[in-house]
Design goal:
Blueprint: E1 2-7, E2 12-17, E3 20-26, E4 39-46, E5 50-54, E6 60-64, E7 78-85, H1 90-96
Length: 99
């Protein structure tokens, strides 16, 4: 599924492919980060426990697969729940790349 994602460095929206949707369950943090219960598009699952998600800012950022939280540790974070899987193996990708 193709979505439009904001890119602040060029001040434009670009088209990117969403491979699924996840719900963030946990403590909300940041104005433009993650909100408890909100559903986010997944752009990519990376090696090393990372998932690229379009967060509240409208941009794509990397978060931990295992425990998404702010880098400054100001929140205990939470977890992801798969809502939609466009590629058919999002669950496997998340499990393969988490500890």
């Amino acid at each position: 599924m193709i979505i439009k994602v904001y890119q602040s460095e060029i001040n434009e929206y670009i088209e990117m492919e969403s491979i699924g949707k996840v719900r963030y369950i946990g403590e909300s943090f940041g104005i433009d980060s993650l909100t408890n219960g909100k559903i986010y598009d997944v752009i990519e699952v990376l090696i090393d426990d990372l998932i690229r998600v379009v967060d509240d800012s409208g941009e794509d950022y990397l978060y931990s697969i295992y425990n998404p939280k702010p880098l400054d540790e100001s929140s205990k974070g939470g977890k992801w729940e798969i809502v939609e899987d466009y590629v058919g193996n999002l669950k496997e990708l998340l499990e393969e790349n988490s500890y």
